[in-house]
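Exam prep: given the inputs below (a chain plus adenine), describe the expected output before reading on.
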Amino acid sequence: MRIDIISVQPNLLASPFQHSILKRAVDKGLLEVNVHDLRSYGIGKHKQVDDYQYGGGAGMVMMLEPVVSCIEDLQKDRQYDEVIYMTPDGKTLDQSLANQLSLKENLLILCGHYKGIDERIRQHFITMEISVGDYVLSGGELAAAIVVDAIGRLIPGVLGDETSALTDSFQDNLLAPPVYTRPAEYRGWKVPDILLSGNFPKIEEWRYEQALKRTEDRRPDLLEDG
Ligand code: ADE
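Solution:
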């Protein structure tokens, strides 16, 4: 999968894809992330990318021309499955959306800044709008990093153990069960006996019960949705 990201703060995206699982995805050639500095498409000597909003009001708006030039330049080289705009008024990211996007070949993500982007960009270029939650970030970059992380780890072949994404929280609308590692006892706090029993069908049953209980306690809304 190839993901292109358009940003006025590309330095904010310098490190998230250079560590851990996403780095492995990049090293294996399963994921390629390219960040494009919108400023290089800016207008005039000052490489302007934002301007005052029509009708007055506080806050600048990202201008049409630099964004359109950048998107059209990128579209010359490939067709994008989705042109995504990161915005708090988009569809809230969840595991199901991450699953869907992980099957795409080419994604283009536009990070917003200031008061947002000229509405005509949304009308004519954007095919999907994603929010990472009901709060406002200073810009779309950290939100885009979250989207790329959630998608990247789901690309087939990225996780060593192919089943491990399937047992994540939210797959099947359940939170993940508790997990333990060595030592089996610490300060008198014991790992549940069942996990040490070697009885794998029983362990699976226990994990399912625990996942269900945890979901009922913490996120009963997930069970209603399912
Ligand atoms: N940009 C600013 N806030 C955001 C959010 N919550 N989700 C996605 N993009 C954003």
